Amino acid sequence: MGQIRWSTASGPSAVVVPSLIAPILTAVGPKILDRNHGAPGNHLGQARPQGRGRSRGVLDCEWVLTSMGGPARPRRVWVSAEEGSPLSSCPIDREGVIPVSLETASGLKCRLCGKIYPKEALNFCTEDFGPLEVTYDYQQVARTLSRAAIQARPRSMWRYRELLPIDGEPTVGEHVGGTPLVRADRLARALGVSELYIKNDAVNYPTLSFKDRVVAVALSKAVELGFQTVGCASTGNLANSVAALAAAAGLDAYVLLPEGLEQGKVLGATIYGAKVIAIEGHYDQVNRLCSQIAFRFGWGFVNVNLRPFYAEGSKSVGFEIAEGLGWRAPDHVVAPMAGGSLIGKIHKALKEFELLGLLDGPVATRMHGAQATGCNPIAAMVKTGAAKVKPIRNPQTIAKSLAIGDPADGYFASKLIQETGGWSEDVDDAAILEAMQLLAETEGIWTETAGGVTLAVTQKLIDQGRIDRDESIVICITGNGLKTQEPLLQRVSRPVVIKPRLEDFEALLETLAPALLAGSSA
Ligand SMILES: Cc1ncc(COP(=O)(O)O)c(C=O)c1O
Ligand SMILES: [Zn+2]
Questions:
Q1: Is the per-residue pLDDT at 257 higher than 50?
Q2: For the chain, what is the mean pLDDT?
Q3: Ligand 2 centroid to 125 CA: how many Å?
Q4: Ligand 1 atom 4: residue of nearest CA
Q5: Integer Cα distance of 237 and 244 in angstroms
Q6: How far apart are CA 472 and CA 181, in angstroms?
């Protein structure tokens, strides 16, 4: 007879509890202690003894694990084979049939201890609370994914679908991705470098940020797993994406934000009919509450219990960069960091393409992370060589979308930056605004404050000699300036108002461009 083993017998006091998990412990109190001792019948709504597998005579097991926070309707169940072994990854459907699978995502794996879990709405390891990541059967992927196959598909993030964790057809966000990779020669001249590109997700569909990618995956997965209600903890852009894509998919959305975000971000969530809730507190408090809500109501929170799937969506930025460069990896990528997920997924994407033989040459890309000085937990970790993230308790920056003081993937982002020979820097608000303007004036791209952070940090890394001037550089612009207008209002000049008369225009030109006027009258 099998039994699900939840954790070591030493109980939760013996394990490190990361911030993401802490609210769950608080919310359920002593129940989790019982669960850790494997007592049947004590559960959080995710682990409970069921005779279903056995009574059908299908599987030899005593206990059945249902997924964390799933919907109440009948759904797939997962079984453990024997005492202490990893859970079997053998799903049975409602009729008790084991489906034939052509799925490429093989499971979830703990990034700390390597324990394998089934593809369910679960984001942490029950042994050590490590984050879970999607794993793939790359042999299966290689059967259908080639350069030719990719190029024959529509220009969206789904052209790399074998490397995204959806089983079957994606149902949400069909048109997401496929954004321009712009050769930025005018900006390159301004920075004194020779080969510079902008990956421009400021024009991603539908809500003008890279978050549409992660949400397309998370909500496709949510539909697949049977969730009707979805949600997120957001610094702004994620709220817009969840609200819009949930509306288009007919899902109910609860979007939680820190109070005081930019109007464009708030309006850009409410317009879609989502329930938008502003929390008196900063992002980490919002995130904590969302963990509790996801557990309490069994909803699909894209960056809580659906996080392993959600995060994989960011890989499509990396795939598009490599394809856009003619199937090669750049020498440098500079990416903004909030939770610290995007930067790691871009690198994972490049390594997956390399593994599948899709690239000319190896991946030797140095990954650089950008943060604002007012919220720089990951940059500080890299710069000081610290072993752990030191959370920022009270973020203060105009780059509100990056204001995550206790980043879920901060440790891994910092490790990756060091392993790839990259670096991380932070910049103050004045530098952010200057960089936003520089990008707009040289390349005609209006980015939000996060993009200002990324460009200003790139400039800093070039000046420090950490990025060679003659190597290829990709700057990830992840959001649109229309959404963060407030800090620009004081900075950019207002239009001059004149009467509709040629002589008034000529009088104006005398101050604006006197040389031009002198030339035309000569
Ligand atoms: C515009 C923008 N860029 C970058 C990020 C950072 O992404 P990550 O949390 O994966 O580090 C965010 C996160 O909210 C964002 O809104
Ligand atoms: Zn683990």
A1: yes
A2: 84
A3: 5
A4: 336
A5: 11
A6: 13
